[in-house]
Amino acid sequence: MQSLKDKIDGLARALGKKADGQQDYTDYKTLRKQYEEQANAEVKQAQQVSKSQRISTLHGRSDLNPKWTFGNLIEDSDDVIEAVSIAHSFIAAHEDLNWRNAGSHMMIFYGDYGRGKSHIAGAIAHQLIDQYEITVLYRQLSTLLELRYSSYDFGAQDKVGQKFREANQELLDVDLLILDEVCVNETMLKKNTQSWLGNLLRQRLVNKKNCILITNHNLAELEMALGRYCFESIKEYDTYKVRFAGPSRRKGLVADEAEQPAQSPAYQPNQLR
């Protein structure tokens, strides 16, 4: 004998209505599609999080100034406008894997202080990291040379030799190396320094790694400062030369005429008692 609930459920089915507590029926094909879409969405989200973390790590290891972006750049002179155009072309070329694998590319930014050379180089690097996850390293040449010279102190207790070897390997491995202040205040590098830098550039050339060199010298002065061996290494690259000749964008330290100098006590040397 049917229970009251069974009779009500039977009547509901007869009327084409869903019985109390009965779930909508979903066929296997539809259900599988729903699960696959959900799984793909979760995988895509995980990939985006992973990519965001990788990009953040690349930015952190690059030592780039976070303010060096195209958004912060003021295009107020012809040289900067031209440099930005070349920079965007260089970035866009990375879309072509054949271009990437064809050889090594070098950009030389040269001109006086404060013209925006480092800013544009940094903007290029930031965008390459964001778009293509390119590994980037920004270094001032003088800082590397100081570390290199210190590595010759075999009696040092701070493992400076090992630190330089690790730094040098990083210079060889990174996809884009930005060397700033190249030969700053130097009319000519020492011979052994010319050889080291020339060998570094040649090894990067063989491994199809790209470089940006930033200098205050003109090209003739740069050739003399680097020496023939090192400069010949540069010539082997597919080279883009960008000259910066506009006004300086750095604010001067000008004292307010109305500002009165602070009165400070005269210097008193330490006294032995």
Please tell me the CATH architecture of one domain by its name.
3-Layer(aba) Sandwich
Number-wise, the strands total 5
Structural class, by secondary structure, is alpha/beta
The share of residues in helices is 40-55%
Mean pLDDT: 83
Instruction: Find the CATH superfamily of one domain.
Output: P-loop containing nucleotide triphosphate hydrolases
Protein name: ATP-binding protein
Keywords: ATP-binding, Nucleotide-binding
GO molecular function: ATP binding
Pfam family, one: IstB_IS21
Protein architecture, described:
- By secondary structure, this protein is of the alpha/beta class.
- It has a domain at 57-244: P-loop containing nucleotide triphosphate hydrolases (Rossmann fold, 3-Layer(aba) Sandwich).
- Helix content is 51%, strand content 11%.
- The protein is built from ten helices and five strands.
- It has helices at 4-14, 28-62, 78-93, 97-102, 117-132, 141-150, 160-173, 191-206, 219-226, 228-235, and strands spanning 105-111, 136-140, 176-180, 210-215, 238-244.
- Strands 2-3-4-1-5 form a five-stranded parallel beta sheet, with helices on both faces.
- α3 runs parallel beside α5, α8 (191-206) packs parallel to α10 (228-235) and α9 crosses α10.
- The longest helix has 35 residues, at 28-62.
- Mean pLDDT is 83; it is low at 261-273.
- Residues 253-273 are annotated as: Disordered.
- Pfam families: IstB_IS21.
- Residues 261-273 have a biased composition (Polar residues).
